[in-house]
Amino acid sequence: MNTQINIESRQRTQAASSSLQVRGLSLRLDGRVVLRDVTLQLPATGITTLIGPSGAGKTSLLRCLNGLLEHWQGEVRIAGKDTRQWPGGWDALRRHVGLLGQKPCVFPLSIRANVVFGIQGFWRRRRAAARVEHYLRQAALWDEVAERLQQPAQRLSIGQQQRLCLARALAVKPRMLLLDEPTASLDPTSKHLIERSIGRLANELPVLWVTHDLEQARRLGGQVVFMCEGRIIEQGASEAFFRRPQRLESREFINWQVCDCGGPS
Amino acid sequence: MTRGHWSKLLIALLALPALLLPAASLGYILWRAGPVLDWAFVSSADEGMGFGVASGILPQLTGSLLLAFSACLLAAPVALGCALYYQLCAGTGRRGILLILLQMLQGIPPIVFGLAGLLIFVYLLDWGVSLASGAVVLAGVVLPLLTVNVIDALQRLPTHYSESARSLGLRDGELIMRVWLPMAWPGILTGLLLAMARALSETAPILFTATVFSGAGWPDSIFEPVTTLQTHVFYLAQEAADEQAVATAWGSAAVLVGVVLIFALLAQCLRRMSGSRSD
Hints:
The structure holds 2 protein chains of 2 kinds. Chain A has helices spanning 2-17, 58-66, 89-96, 111-115, 122-128, 132-138, 142-145, 158-171, 188-201, 214-220, 238-243, 248-254, and strands at 20-29, 32-42, 46-51, 73-78, 81-82, 97-100, 176-180, 206-210, 223-228, 231-237. Chain A is α/β, with parallel strands linked by helices. Chain A has a domain at 30-105 and 175-254: P-loop containing nucleotide triphosphate hydrolases (Rossmann fold, 3-Layer(aba) Sandwich), CATH 3.40.50.300. Chain A has a 6-stranded mixed sheet with strand order 6-7-8-3-9-10, sandwiched between helices. Helix content of chain B is 76%, strand content 0%. Chain B contains 11 helices and no strands. Chain B has helices spanning 3-33, 39-43, 58-88, 92-107, 110-124, 131-155, 159-167, 172-201, 204-207, 229-237, 243-278. In chain B, helix 1 (3-33) crosses helix 11, helix 5 (110-124) packs across helix 6 (131-155) and helix 6 (131-155) crosses helix 8. Chain B starts with a helix and ends with a helix. The interface between A and B is medium-sized, with 22 and 16 residues.
């Protein structure tokens, strides 16, 4: 009896400390099944790496979590709250869950204006201008742009633009970060700077990082989730996953082989 | 000569009328307008004698511009609303219906708009033959063209801007005000200039609703009639026996074509600008 109570209590504590809980998430896009019965739990802090072959549904999963895709089945809870009943609706959820895409997209505005772009309200944006340095430092970009905040953001290099997008996402003060291959098209220096910044941020908030780069997934540590054909195949601690994957599909993927996940016919 | 050269020559021959006809028409209009066309003709007003046959066309020019501008001013918010609905709210089915409706509206002969305007605004609402009646009718004529252009301007925007703004939690209103309108304004302005050009070249819708031949200058209120270049040319052209009237008609036609060309060229320049921005 006591053992039963202890297990239930431990499960409740685990769920409460977990920032994100996904249960039975399924998604169809244009009649095609993209996600099928995805169940996932993210810790309150730290990096969780999402890996898998192209077309596995990784980006779609992030877009469901962020609320960019709204028509899915299942349940997503963030800090215990159902995202479908999120106070303030999907827009408020998107501010809560920051999303950084693969390709940087800066608006044709100054660097400073780009950083505060996502902040709501004219006066709030004006006030937030004083904290531009803080967000740019968090994104490891301050030293490179400190003298030219009024210059057009589109003059920055791709790596700098991606870090600017990170600063812009942070300025909205998200409680969770979703990163969709943010370093895929970047040079090693920019890649390193972004990894370092996110590593620091992951001490305070949960990060779900999609990557195709297995070396990077190893380097990031934390948890690894392996997805294939819309399903989660395996998840576990990074070190254990890469040392001894439990599932055949995971082993094949890690060994650069063609992954046959027995997906939808 | 190779086959490639022959095909190029054939294409050039086929394209020749498309180049020659407008150039020849423009040249002929200018040649006929030459004897009366000078600054005084454009900048002076009717002195109340001769019903505009021998005098300047300033009232007609300002009347035309005033009508076209008012029509665009009325049509612009409606066109913008339609385009935003098309982009933001409508599903594929509704988008198709909206486009069909716009095409149908574009296909209605302008004289039908004129007749409808005469019945509704001039008689039913008792606005009389006035600037207000003409502007509303003309707004109906340019509305589909303007809407299609605004939709086109919004669709030319790269989708990743909207995606990024949405992922930052921007609401629909903020997305429109802070992303779409600031970025699509050259395209929207292009549409407005084309609509101005179209409004300036329409005669039938304003014939019964807004204009009088002579005696009207700058209107004191929106419920007074105006004179316009289009109807001025129309009336003077009927005085074929009077050489002075015919010469004035050609002069007015040249000015009208010039104004329409200016708006059309400005629209083209802006379209190129917005095209290079969205690349």
